[in-house]
Design goal:
Oligomer: single chain
Order of helices and strands: EEEEEHH
Helix content: 25-40%
Distance between the termini: 38 Å
Radius of gyration: 20 Å
Strand order of the largest sheet: 4-3-2-1-5
Number of strands: 5
Shape: elongated
């Protein structure tokens, strides 16, 4: 991840049990060497995020997630959806595919097979 700039607006999401709570755009208010801080009132000390990963600095599980913009967040949701679909359909049922189909899957995914 790139280093954010003071005053820049980033898209904040709060992860909840069954769905994400969209907070919206928040401003970066300070940028240090290791952390940056946003202007959203999270618990004391927990509005810090690591510069190199944009992950929330916390002693517990990360609850808040930052994205460049709303499109980046929506792209992440779509990516997760496709990963889930592929996992559920392929992981549990490889034996239902023909040899031709399996070879095409390997070709599309550009997986090298030692023969």
């Amino acid at each position: 991840m790139r280093k954010p700039i003071i005053g820049e607006e980033l898209y904040l999401i709060q992860e909840e049990k069954n769905k994400d709570k969209i907070i919206g755009y928040v401003k970066v208010i300070t940028v240090g060497r290791k952390y940056f801080k946003i202007d959203y009132p999270i618990y004391v000390g927990y509005s810090n995020f690591y510069i190199n990963s944009w992950k929330q600095k916390t002693e517990y599980s990360q609850e808040y997630y930052l994205y460049e913009n709303e499109k980046a967040y929506l792209d992440k949701l779509e990516t997760d959806k496709y990963i889930r679909i592929l996992h559920n359909n392929l992981y549990h049922g490889w034996y239902g595919y023909s040899l031709y189909q399996l070879k095409k899957i390997v070709e599309i995914l550009e997986i090298k097979i030692d023969e």
